[in-house]
Amino acid sequence: MKRSLDSFYIPVSEVPTNVSISNVTSRSFTISWDKPRNAFGELIGYILIISSAEDKVCVVEEFINCSTGCKSAFPNQTVISPACKEKTKYQNVDKTELLSRRNFTASLNPDTEYTVSVAAVNQGGKGHTEDIKKNTWEEGRILI
């Protein structure tokens, strides 16, 4: 009996929703997002990559992995961006945390434009990314 490959295909997730950057200072900002409208299966994590916009140098790559309450997970050894290899971090969360609004605060350099990429991960792999560019303030900027 011949089997169709389509029965084994799992589409990757849509982009996370409501991706935003707030609390911008000269040395940090906070990235927030919600789960995708359609994960096309079980959502098992997120991949967050922050890089300098000008020269594409990786600042951090964060794997947020569902470690409790999910049927599957992606391995901690997975490195999507070879340029981030030394800057990769892992965070294990339970399913409730994974499906809630996510926040991540990054430590950065002043007066620099960054590209933030967030992707949801399902059994099909890394999904489509939502990319946002944001500048940190120059050092010494004061809010009035």
Automatic annotation (TrEMBL):
It comes from Potamilus streckersoni. PROSITE patterns: FN3. InterPro entries: FN3_dom (IPR003961), FN3_sf (IPR036116), Ig-like_fold (IPR013783). Gene3D superfamilies: Immunoglobulins (2.60.40.10). It holds the Pfam family fn3. Residues 15-140 form the Fibronectin type-III domain. This is Fibronectin type-III domain-containing protein.
